[in-house]
Design goal:
Layout (H helix, E strand, L loop, with lengths): L5 E4 L3 H12 L4 E5 L10 E2 L8 E2 L6 H4 L2 H11 L5 E2 L5 E4 L5 E4 L3 H11 L3 H24 L5 H14 L1 H11 L3 H8 L3 H7 L15 H15 L3 E2 L4 H13 L3 E4 L3 E6 L5 E6 L4 E3 L3 E5 L2 H8 L9 H9 L5 E9 L16 E4 L3 H12 L2 E2 L5 E4 L14 E10 L5 E2 L14 H16 L5 H4 E7 L1 H7 L37 E4 L12 H9 L2
Helix pairs in contact: 1-11, 1-18, 4-5, 5-10, 6-7, 8-10
């Protein structure tokens, strides 16, 4: 094999984007994946019964569809078979008493919906979205741009000139507000607040987290614009398109290639990698690792001839992972019939929650190591707009529980016994899944009768599937303000450089954080020669 310019370790969305960007520039890339298939959190399997196609982990592609990475690579991927399935009603909320709200991709309809819930809420929503749209160039440059860079300095200075220093300070102050403060001060209806509160969880935050208000607004803006699309036929088809794109440009992809060390040569520069079997692969220009910080600094660089700086050691010691995640998949004999109304069956992602306080309570319980008594349930209904995922007349449900403890201390409902070791077991996983199933059965007609099979995946199972999901944390680390933006993953971090020349760090643990936007892969792939 010809010596590559770059070796990329890890084939999640960021590794795939970086490999594609560099390959299109004419660089020789080798992408190494320890698992049998590429994709990281993108994984499609018939995990319940044959013929039912499930996205095992991530499924919603709105962040990718609206990302700079897709702007750069979208046409190439579409030419290699990528198609999206779209739903005109991307999200909604269903409360225990049957009250519900459905959000569409039509501004007029949304304003009318909110206005019917409480006078003034429709106008408030439209005003907030218009304000965010006006701020979008500046806001999205901060959320997705290279923070330690001269262009970013120019962007901030230009905004300071436009708004004035006090005005810019006020803008940042508002951006740091909590979702609870925003929702309670902006909307009068509890149902409107209930619609948006669960979305905070999908950013790795809670309703009382700093800057969670801004994330709620960004999500509302994004899904009204682009919906909650999924890859037609399953996320695996996106991976197939990436594989074709990379190899068409001369790249090499190797699966079952478990990297055990990053090689550091003379002068302290990264020169390549060693696989678990002993094989060494050298790189001309650099090594890019899309892995969790603990894996990079605690394992891959364990034998580096130059000791890590104290700020890296301190950063690694204090780095925190966030809540875990749990997935449940159902194969059904027929599409679900929601008791509160047939229209709910046409919603792409439906949240089941008692409301803002319910989300807050469940998130707090999970953060304290308790199984939430009434967790927030995100229900994906992909067959309603991508019918090929199940046999004709049948269906699947994709469930995500974003409030799952990584380490168990107890059960908030006092029903499930937790061991002294705090570990997830098969028995705990299935008993907790039973709790979720009872909540579904309260809302879906004859639910137990239409279930063909169920597959539950605990936070511990997720980590076994993907070594970077430490404790089942799908966000690459706690996403609170002190471990985000300029301070991700460490307080000393500068873009995607590491203390080892020629070694770069990307992935959910680095800026701009988690999600399927491929942001860190795009930023690094755009800047490297």
């Amino acid at each position: 094999m010809t010596q590559p310019d770059y070796i990329i370790v890890g084939s999640g969305i960021n590794g795939l984007v970086a490999a594609s960007m560099l390959a299109k520039k004419g660089k020789r890339v080798v992408l190494l994946e320890r698992n049998a298939e590429i994709g990281g959190c993108l994984r499609t399997e018939e995990i319940t019964v044959p013929g039912f196609v499930h996205d095992v982990m991530a499924t919603t592609m709105v962040l990718f569809l609206t990302s700079p990475a897709y702007g750069a690579l979208g046409k190439d991927l579409e030419a290699r078979g990528l198609e999206f399935a779209h739903c005109p009603t991307p999200t909604g909320v269903l409360r225990p008493d049957g009250r519900h709200v459905i959000f569409s991709m039509d501004r007029k309809r949304n304003v009318e919906t909110f206005e019917a819930l409480a006078k003034g809420d429709g106008a408030a929503f439209s005003r907030e979205m218009d304000r965010l749209g006006a701020d979008a160039p500046f806001l999205f440059s901060l959320l997705g741009g290279s923070l330690w860079s001269f262009p970013m300095l120019k962007t901030v200075l230009r905004e300071a000139w436009k708004r004035g220093l006090r005005g810019l300070a006020g803008w940042f102050g508002e951006a740091l507000s909590t979702a609870r403060a925003h929702l309670e001060s902006t909307y009068q209806s509890d149902d409107t607040r209930a619609l948006w509160a669960p979305w905070v969880l999908h950013t790795g935050l809670g309703p009382e987290s700093a800057y969670s208000a801004q994330m709620v607004k960004v999500i509302g803006f994004a899904i009204e614009l682009a919906g909650c699309p999924i890859v037609k036929g399953g996320a695996q088809n996106l991976l197939t398109a990436f594989r074709r794109l990379i190899t068409d440009h001369g790249g090499v992809i190797r699966t079952g290639a478990d990297v055990s060390r990053v090689l550091v040569g003379p002068g302290g520069k990264a020169t390549g990698v060693r696989l678990a079997g002993g094989e060494e692969i050298l790189a001309k220009a650099g090594v890019i690792c899309s892995v969790a910080p603990g894996l990079l600094y605690g394992s891959l660089l364990k034998d580096a001839p130059v000791p890590m700086p104290e700020d890296i050691a301190e950063g690694l010691r204090t780095f925190r992972h966030g809540k875990g995640n749990m997935q449940i998949h159902y194969a059904l004999r027929e599409p679900p019939k929601w008791k509160a109304g047939a229209e709910l069956g046409k919603v792409a992602l439906l949240h089941l929650t008692s409301g803002l306080d319910g989300v807050s309570r469940a998130a707090n319980e999970a953060e304290r190591g308790l199984l939430p008594a009434e967790p927030t349930i995100c229900v994906g209904q992909p067959v309603s707009f991508d019918p090929g995922r199940a046999p004709e007349g049948q269906s699947i449900l994709w469930l995500q529980l974003p409030e799952a403890p990584r380490h168990l201390k107890g059960d908030a409902a006092g029903e499930i016994e937790v061991g002294a070791d705090g570990q997830w077991t098969e028995a705990i996983r299935e008993r907790y899944a039973d709790r979720i199933e009872r909540m579904l059965a309260n809302q879906i007609e004859n639910f137990q009768d239409i279930v063909i099979a169920r597959r539950a995946i605990s936070p511990a199972d997720l980590e076994r599937m993907n070594i970077n999901l430490v404790g089942g944390d799908p966000y690459g680390g706690f996403c609170g303000l002190d471990q985000f933006f300029l301070w991700r993953p460490f307080k000393s971090s500068v873009n995607h450089r590491t203390p080892v020349p020629g070694l770069y760090h990307i992935g959910a643990s680095t800026h701009p954080g988690p999600g399927l936007g491929g942001g860190s892969g795009f930023l690094l792939g755009s800047t490297l020669d």
